[in-house]
Amino acid sequence: MANPEQYHFMLPHDNKPPFIPLEEELHPSFQWLTSNRSRSRGRDVFNVIDTIVVHATAGYATQHAIDTWKARVASAHWVIPDENEPQHGHFVWATVAEAKAAYHVGNVDYIPHLGVGTNVNNRSLGIEIVNTQDVQDFTDTFSDWQVTAVAKIVLYAWAKYPNLRHVISHAKLDPSRRSDPGNNFPWEEFKNQVLTHSVLGSRNQIVTAVYTPPDIVKHSGNCCEP
Ligand SMILES: [Zn+2]
Is 223 inside a domain boundary? Predict the structure, then answer.
């Protein structure tokens, strides 16, 4: 059986995927959580992010996770809805702005697998999958859509952040306290979806179309200076 304490792979420097925007919506608590359940990363987000952490909530619904975060001062950047939620199959929730550090890893000093770097929360993005975990003895399976949704977030972030390398479970970061996303999570299948880009959608054709500018009318003055 898969051991979540082993879930970890590296994104190669080459073979970066094309950038595909996420199918995400801002959760109704996005503004509040970003204001009250995150902090400055201390460095610019573009350079500092080198890790993405996969979690599962140990709860029944997105709102259960949000309520817990509000009560206990925790958070993550995205929540993947469970099968019984209307958003499942359609979009993921953005819950904290990527520019901010979310509070998704509690034991931030235990980082032997990530090498030299700053506090785990400052350098990472956190994804929470709604799944009951040990609340139901790990009998809640992850849907194919949930697994693919996590892979798409990793591909999106890989295309966007130049230093992103580590894809790792919460269990591997904090094995004495955490086991998420649990041994039901199909890590090898997920890893394959990421490294082969197999789950990427097609790009918006407008983005790649050749733009032909109209005849330029020359004005005096300097355009567009700050
Ligand atoms: Zn976790």
Answer: no
Q: For residue 136, report the distance from its CA to the centre of ligand 1, in Å.
A: 16
> What is the distance between the alpha carbons of residues 179 and 4, in angstroms, rounded to a whole number?
6
Spatial distance between the Cα atoms of 88 and 57, rounded to a whole number of angstroms: 15
Domain of 160 in residue numbering reads as 4-208
Give me the number of domains the chain comprises.
1
**Does some domain include residue 215?**
no
Note if the bond before 81 is cis, omega within 30 degrees. no
CATH of the domain at 75: 3.40.80.10
What average pLDDT does range 66-93 have in this prediction? 97
Dist. CA 64 → ligand 1 center (Å) = 14
Residue 224, domain member (yes or no): no
Identify the CA nearest to 184 among candidates 146, 151, 149. Answer: 146
Residue-level length of the chain = 226
Q: How far is the CA of 61 from the centre of ligand 1 (A)?
A: 15
Q: Would the pLDDT of 83 be above 70?
A: yes
Give a yes or no: residue 117 inside a domain: yes
**Each residue of 145-199: pLDDT tens digit?**
999 999 999 999 999 999 999 999 999 998 889 999 999 999 999 999 999 999 9
69 Cα–ligand 1 center, Å: 12
Q: Give the distance (Å) from ligand 1 centre to CA of residue 174.
A: 9
Q: Within a 10 A sphere around the Cβ of 144, how many other Cβ atoms?
A: 12
